């Protein structure tokens, strides 16, 4: 508890020295006795007391300097009036000698006066206007002090109870040191705040070489307003590995030196959950791909003459999507869609699929239903890509001549346009039940002839470049010579 110095000589000196003294009060501990002695020494009061509002209409004496048992009863009515009105009041009382009393409202909580200062001066002479003005100035200084202490108390309470290290870094003699570290250091790092302040190398020593270099580099980019958001791996003194996240903003401190205000929190559990979620997603994707492959295999078992067709279309479609610069995730979706693009053929009798000659019109119309059937099978499956829609559109043409909806131009998804070209090239180039393979040259000639009419020009160009400049070959082709053979066509090339 700080001793109150001797009283000032002038009223102005009283206010100045009061402000200086109050600036040194940083906590509630011993606050009211100190304020009582200050009022007596600096303002000449014979008795100084503080009363707090308590509950609905209740009052409680916080401190009286010196002890004066009669003061509370003598000033009870005036004190209640000041609490109610929020205005200064004066009156004459006997405690037991005559005293002139001033009652000052201090602070407000929820629009009500929080405290009343009672200052009693011995004698029966009314207090002057100048004295009242001095007390009003004192009330303002006390309110400011109470607000500051409350703010500091709230900050320190939160800082020590939130599970994050709140800190201020200051550069000192070429080293970064903690000028402040909150009690959250225990939760974030497992060390005490005072240990960090005493030895900031505790933090840097736990970082690997790359992490320490990133942190120091970030701290030296200390232009005011600069922000840092930096994930770090930190080895605690107990040997445990923690994942930390540092958020800080640069500011200008004392003497113009750079400082960093920020927070450091332990995100190890978040990282663990994200990693677990990533593994679960990988397992889910693997299960989905296995299911798709099982569907594709089932279709191929029913149609042995086109075994591997969907797999080859999927490989070519993925290569075309990559050549067009599509993101990896979209390429993956196109590959999976192409791997089951003919799933609707499960609705077509196997004897029609393997029919060795030209199909009658009714049977051919049945085959043309497979995009719609495929869509209906897949539309309620929650894929991360528009798989069902691409399956539905893989026989649509830019000029509207395709089926089942006769879509045109950009109405057709790019993924579907890619699968269409891959499907046509594979179907023409390789063997079918009703004819031998016509070869890649014939397939490329077909898509070039209909470039911009049926087929997307960019996709056609990428396909021609892939085969002719990059010597692409379909995977799992048992007889490569058959791919390039060009025997006479027995049926109009499909597409």
Explain what the structure shows.
There is one protein chain. This protein is an alpha+beta fold. The protein contains 20 helices and ten strands. It has three domains: 150 residues, 2-Layer Sandwich (Beta-Lactamase), CATH 3.30.450; 105 residues, 2-Layer Sandwich (Beta-Lactamase), CATH 3.30.450.20; 191 residues, Hypothetical protein af1432 (Orthogonal Bundle), CATH 1.10.3210.10. Strand 1 and strand 2 form a beta hairpin. The radius of gyration is 42 Å and the shape is elongated.
Shape verdict: elongated
Secondary structure class reads: alpha+beta
Number of helices: 20
Task: Strand order, main sheet: write it out.
Answer: 2-1-5-4-3
Q: How would you summarize what this structure contains?
A:
The chain has 495 residues and is an alpha+beta fold. 47% of the residues lie in helices and 18% in strands. Residues 284-479 form the HD-GYP domain.
Helices and strands, with pairings:
Blueprint: H1 11-23, H2 31-43, E1 47-54, E2 58-65, H3 71-74, H4 76-85, E3 89-94, E4 98-109, E5 112-122, H5 129-161, E6 164-172, E7 175-181, H6 185-189, H7 193-198, H8 201-205, H9 209-220, E8 227-235, E9 241-252, E10 258-266, H10 268-302, H11 309-323, H12 328-338, H13 350-353, H14 361-367, H15 370-378, H16 387-393, H17 414-429, H18 440-449, H19 457-468, H20 480-484
Helix pairs in contact: 1-5, 11-12, 11-17, 11-19, 12-16, 12-17, 15-16, 16-17, 17-18, 18-19
Domain HD-GYP: 284-479
Protein name: PAS/PAC sensor protein
GO molecular function, one term: phosphoric diester hydrolase activity
């Amino acid at each position: 508890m700080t001793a109150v110095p001797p009283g000032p000589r002038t009223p102005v000196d009283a206010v100045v020295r009061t402000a200086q003294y109050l600036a040194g009060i940083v906590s509630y501990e011993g606050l009211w006795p100190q304020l009582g002695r200050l009022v007596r020494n600096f303002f000449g009061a014979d008795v100084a007391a503080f009363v707090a509002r308590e509950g609905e209409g209740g009052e409680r004496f916080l401190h009286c300097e010196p002890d004066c048992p009669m003061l509370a009863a003598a000033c009870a009515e005036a004190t209640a009036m000041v609490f109610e009105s929020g205005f200064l009041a004066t009156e004459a009382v006997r405690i037991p000698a005559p005293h002139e009393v001033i009652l000052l409202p201090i602070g407000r909580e929820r629009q009500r006066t929080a405290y009343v200062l009672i200052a009693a001066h011995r004698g029966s002479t009314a207090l002057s206007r100048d004295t009242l003005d001095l007390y009003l100035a004192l009330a303002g200084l006390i309110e400011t002090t109470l607000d500051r202490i409350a703010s500091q108390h709230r900050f320190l309470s939160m800082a020590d109870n939130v599970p994050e290290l709140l800190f201020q870094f200051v550069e000192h003699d070429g080293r970064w040191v903690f000028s402040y570290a909150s009690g959250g250091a225990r939760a974030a790092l497992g060390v005490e705040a005072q240990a960090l302040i005493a030895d900031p190398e505790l933090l840097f020593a736990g970082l690997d070489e790359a992490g320490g270099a990133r942190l120091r580099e970030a701290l030296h980019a200390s232009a005011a307003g600069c922000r840092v958001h930096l994930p770090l791996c930190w080895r605690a003194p107990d040997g445990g590995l923690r994942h930390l996240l540092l958020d800080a903003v640069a500011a200008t401190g004392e003497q113009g030196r750079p400082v960093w205000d920020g927070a450091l929190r332990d995100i190890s559990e978040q990282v663990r959950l994200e990693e677990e979620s990533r593994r679960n997603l990988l397992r889910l994707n693997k299960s989905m791909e296995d299911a798709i492959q099982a569907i594709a295999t089932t279709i191929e078992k029913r149609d042995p003459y086109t075994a591997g067709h969907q797999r080859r279309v999927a490989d070519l479609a993925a290569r075309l999507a990559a050549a067009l610069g599509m993101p990896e995730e979209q390429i993956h979706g196109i590959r999976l869609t192409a791997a089951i693009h003919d799933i609707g053929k499960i609705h077509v009798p196997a004897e029609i699929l393997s029919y060795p000659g030209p199909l009658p019109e009714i049977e051919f119309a049945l085959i043309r239903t497979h995009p719609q059937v495929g869509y209906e099978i897949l539309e309620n499956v929650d894929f991360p890509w528009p798989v069902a829609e691409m399956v539905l559109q893989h026989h649509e043409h830019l000029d509207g001549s395709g089926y089942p909806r006769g879509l045109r131009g950009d109405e057709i998804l790019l993924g579907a346009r890619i699968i269409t070209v891959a499907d046509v090239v594979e179907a023409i180039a390789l063997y079918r039940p009703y004819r031998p393979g016509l070869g890649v040259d014939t397939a490329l000639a077909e898509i070039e002839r209909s470039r911009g009419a049926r087929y997307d020009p960019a996709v056609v160009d990428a396909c021609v470049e892939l085969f002719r400049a990059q010597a692409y070959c379909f995977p799992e082709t048992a007889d490569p010579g058959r791919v390039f053979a060009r025997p006479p066509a027995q049926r109009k090339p499909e597409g």
